What we know:
The chain is mainly alpha-helical. The protein has helices at about 50-55, 55-70, 80-100, 115-135, 140, 145, 155-185, 200-225, 225-240, 250, 260-265, 270-280, 290-310, 315-320; strands at about 10, 20. It has one domain.
Amino acid sequence: MSPDLNDSMTVSAPDSAPIDTASTDASPTDTPPIPHVVIAPSRGWVALNLAELWRYRELLVFLAWRDIKVRYKQTVLGIAWAVMVPLMTMVVLNVLFGLLMGKNGKPTIEGVPYAVSTFCALVPWQLFSNVIGQSSGSVVGSSNLITKIYFPRLITPLAPVLSCMVDFLIAFAVLLGIIGYFHLFTDYHFVISWALLTLPLWVLLAVAAALSISLWLSALNVVYRDVRYILPFLTQLLMYVSPVIYTTKSVMTGDVPQWIRTVYALNPLVSVMEGFRWALLGRSDPPGFELIPSTAMVAVLLVGGLYYFRRMERTFADVA
C-alpha cells in the first residue's frame, strides 16, 4: 500500500537524530525577501553616476585586456606594431622633408634633430588617434553585450583608453631610447629640467582630448553609421592642423594675425605636442598662449560628451 503523501514523514540522516519534517517551525514569513532591481531607461538629462562606474571597475579592466588580446591576435609582430607605426612615419617624414627642404630647412626645434622632434610628437598623437579610432566604434562593437546584460555604458568607450595606454608606454620607452641614442652618438645633448615633471599633465590632457571626442562619436555612431566614414578624414585633418610634423614656432610667425593664433590654439593637441617637446627635449618654450584655449576646449567637449552619452545610452540596446 503506497503511503499518503500528505502524511508526515520521518527522514533519518547518518549519525544524527531523526528529523520530523511535519514538525518544522519554519514558516514562509521567516524567509527574507529577495531584492529586485528594476532597470528602466532614463528620461531626459541624467547624472553621470561615477560611483556606479567605480563599482564596475573590474569589468573595465577585463574589457581593456580583451581589446589588447584581440588587437594583436594572430599577428606576426604582435605588440611591436605599437612602435612600428610611429617609427616608420617618422622615417618617411624625415626623408621627405630632407629632400624637399634640405638638411637645415626642416621644421624642427633649434638644436634638436628633426627625427627626435617628430617622434616626440608622434607618440602622444598615436595615443590620441588610437583612442578615437577604437572608442568611437566601441558601443556598436559591444552590441551583443549591451543587449544582454546591464552595466554602465560609459565603460565601453573607456576600456580602449586603458588598452591604448599600454601601446603608449611601449612607444614612450622607444622614444627615450631614441633620445638616448642621439645624446650619446650625435651633437645633440638631452637637457634634464624640472619641466620633465609636467609630462603626466600632457598625457592626461591628450587622453582627455581623445575621450572627449570619442564620447560624442561613439554615441553618434549608434544612430548614424556615417561616423565610421568620417573618422579617417577627421583623424587625418587633425594631424595636419596639429604640430606633429612641424612645430608651432615654424608656422606661427610674427606676421600671423591674432585671430588665427586663437583658432589654432583651440586645438587641444597644440598644447599636448608642444608640452611633450618642452618636457622631454628641454630646448623649446613651454606652451603659452595656446594652453588656456586648448584646456577650455577639452573641458567643454568632455563635460558635454559625458552628458550627451548618458542621455543617448537609453537607446543603445534598441538601436545598436
